[in-house]
Amino acid sequence: MIIILFGPPGAGKGTQAQRIEKSRGLVQLSTGDMLRAAVAAETEMGKAAKAAMDSGSLVTDEIVIGIIRDRIQEEDCKNGFILDGFPRTVAQAEALDVMLAEQGLNLDAVIEMKVDDEALVDRVCGRYTCAKCGEGYHDTNLKPKVEGVCDVCGSTEFTRRKDDNPETFGSRLQAYYADTAPVLPYYADKGTLQQVDGMAAIDEVAAQIDAVLAA
Ligand code: ADP
Ligand code: ADP
Ligand code: ZN
């Protein structure tokens, strides 16, 4: 199964992708995570992407299309994958169609997560993750069961993204409306677009996604 989780920064794409990965045995492919790994490793790609990421604008289509093209050919993607944060432009959506067709693969669902702008800024600025296992948390919406201790791995170290601040969030939301939202009619025209209420509680959003995937 191949699924796209679509939505603005903070919509809950990563949270739901992690859950689908566990429940359905699909691989989460987050271009944001892959780019941050490249920046941390100081690869050529990371150096080329860093300035755009820090300022909250989009990395070039060429870079992210190349990342996805290589990644979906790896062995662990054979059972299917969840695209989290890709495609983010119409050019990326078109390139994805070409690469899926080349490999004889079919897109099963594009799920748009709709969330109000005011809720997004709170979600993004309160977001943090376990430094060891990557489990996602939130200052008020999703705290670990024991304060300061990761539920999954017991680590007591957490990290926050440099771009998760109100200023950079503003640029990211602008990029979403200017370049990414135009991808929605692209999939609507193909009949693959579905929506869930991303304002609902995390478990409820997961249930809505399950219902979409079961239909
Ligand atoms: P995205 O990957 O779309 O940028 P995340 O999945 O990282 O978004 O979610 C952003 C923040 O909001 C995280 O801290 C997460 O715990 C929290 N969050 C995710 N889904 C919900 C929800 N349905 N209700 C409240 N908070 C949520
Ligand atoms: P969020 O979870 O808030 O939606 P991501 O982790 O997906 O953010 O992305 C972080 C940053 O990485 C983006 O602001 C952008 O600079 C870059 N990025 C990630 N995916 C893409 C993409 N598909 N196209 C262009 N830039 C991307
Ligand atoms: Zn952990």
Automatic annotation (TrEMBL):
Compartments reported by the entry: Cytoplasm
Key words, A-Z: ATP-binding, Cytoplasm, Kinase, Metal-binding, Nucleotide biosynthesis, Nucleotide-binding, Transferase, Zinc
One BP term from GO: AMP salvage
EC numbers: 2.7.4.3
Superkingdom per UniProt: Bacteria
Residues where AMP binds: T31, R36, S57, L58, V59, G85, F86, P87, R88, Q92, R161, R172
Chain sites annotated for binding ATP: G10, A11, G12, K13, G14, T15, R127, A200
Reaction equation(s) it catalyzes: AMP + ATP = 2 ADP
Ranges for region NMP: 30-59
Root EC class: transferase
Residue ranges constituting the Adenylate kinase active site lid domain according to the UniProt record: 127-163
Pathway: Purine metabolism; AMP biosynthesis via salvage pathway; AMP from ADP: step 1/1
Entries under PROSITE patterns matching the protein: ADENYLATE_KINASE
Gene Ontology, cellular component aspect: cytoplasm
Ribonucleoprotein recorded as keyword: no
Binding, Zn(2+): C130, C133, C150, C153
Molecular function via GO: AMP kinase activity; ATP binding; zinc ion binding
Free-text note regarding domains: Consists of three domains, a large central CORE domain and two small peripheral domains, NMPbind and LID, which undergo movements during catalysis. The LID domain closes over the site of phosphoryl transfer upon ATP binding. Assembling and dissambling the active center during each catalytic cycle provides an effective means to prevent ATP hydrolysis. Some bacteria have evolved a zinc-coordinating structure that stabilizes the LID domain.
PANTHER family the UniProt entry points to: NUCLEOTIDE KINASE (PTHR23359)
Subunit record text: Monomer.
Summary of the function given for this chain in its UniProt record: Catalyzes the reversible transfer of the terminal phosphate group between ATP and AMP. Plays an important role in cellular energy homeostasis and in adenine nucleotide metabolism.
Family: Belongs to the adenylate kinase family.
Protein name: Adenylate kinase
Lineage: Bacteria, Pseudomonadati, Pseudomonadota, Alphaproteobacteria, Kordiimonadales
